[in-house]
Amino acid sequence: MQAINAKYKLGQEVWKINWCNPPTWETCYTCNGSKFVHIKETNKQISCPDCRGEGGRSVFLSSRWKAGSKLTIGKIQIEQFDPIYSDNKNRVTYMCKETGIGTGSVHDQNQLFASLEAAEREVKKRNKTLEKEG
Ligand SMILES: [Zn+2]
Hints:
By secondary structure, the chain is mainly β. The chain has one helix and nine strands. The chain binds zinc ion (ZN).
């Protein structure tokens, strides 16, 4: 059986890409963002009942990939399964100095890149795929 190898070495600097879901501000249709509605009969302004005077709301529409921070590999974890137990579950994960070694975040190899340029290229590629799908 072929051994799986880690792509990155201990001490190597890598760039992580993250799946982000930044909120998008959606302007309230009732008050058009002014936060008030005008009552014609009484000629009064009241706080908009639809947005409760906020002028809009945060919506989560555009999940996308984003190039994140630089990390330094501090621990390599290779998980390899005998194919009779599990297919395609093999994975290489890393723990990094910046996010904790031993306890902390575990980073998947397919979200780490050797340079910021490579990370940004991958982000572009993955987001383009999203646009096609969505
Ligand atoms: Zn409103």
